[in-house]
Amino acid sequence: MDEARVGQKGRTGHRWWLKGERPRGLCDRRFEWAYLYAAVQPATGEDVCLVLPAVSTAAMSTFLGAFARALPANQHAVMVLDQAGWHGAKALRVPDAVTLVSLPPYSPELNPVERVWLYLRERFLSHCVLDGYDEIVTACCKAWNALTPERLRSLTHQPWVQKVTS
Q: Among the four residues 44, 84, 107, 121, which has the most C-beta atoms within 10 Å?
């Protein structure tokens, strides 16, 4: 599980271009954004994603509630996440069907969802100018819906995950 900021002040990403020249790109200097909250099951590619206006304990509680509702009855999930402040806040409401496990500090490379953010930014969310919050949300939803379970599995199923789950 992780969250990513998407907005008007985006990044350019990598593009194939002529050697010695810089590719033309669009740049937006406005400061409006939304946040993608997502959890992916690396073995199957099953996912839950929400686009929310902020990162906070309340937003994280909303996401955890949506995640728990997506679980089949009588199933318990272990969610691996980083140590962001709102992930361990005392006010965080964690459903009974979910257990949170924190990654070691300063180790984003261990979070499989980080590779999904990179893929989305490289393929769908870079080199574009988004005009306002509604367009940002639409772009986020369009990008996430373009992902297939097979793609999510290939992005998130890392060697260390296989060792832990087998």
A: 121
Residue 29 has pLDDT above 90, yes or no: no
Determine the angle formed by the axes of helices 149-156 and 113-123, rounding to 10 degrees: 120
Q: CA–CA separation, 125 vs 123, rounded Å?
A: 6
Q: Is 94:62 a contact under the CB 8 Å cutoff?
A: no
Q: Which of 60, 71, 54, 73 is nearest to 7 (CA)?
A: 54
Output the pLDDT for position 131. Answer: 87
**CB contact set of 1 (below 8 Å; sequence gap of 6+):** 37, 38, 39, 67, 79, 80, 81, 113
For 110-160, what is each residue's pLDDT tens digit?
888 999 999 999 899 887 888 899 999 999 999 999 999 999 999 998 777
Using DSSP, state whether 100 is helix, strand or coil.
Answer: strand
Strands 47-52 and 77-81 come out as unpaired
Half-sphere CA count of 80, side-chain side, radius 13 A: 19
Domains and CATH numbers, the chain: 2-12+25-165 (3.30.420.10)
* Distance, CA of 133 to CA of 31 (rounded, Å): 10
**Which of residues 66 and 10 earns the better pLDDT score?**
66
Q: Are strands 2-7 and 33-40 parallel, antiparallel or unpaired?
A: antiparallel
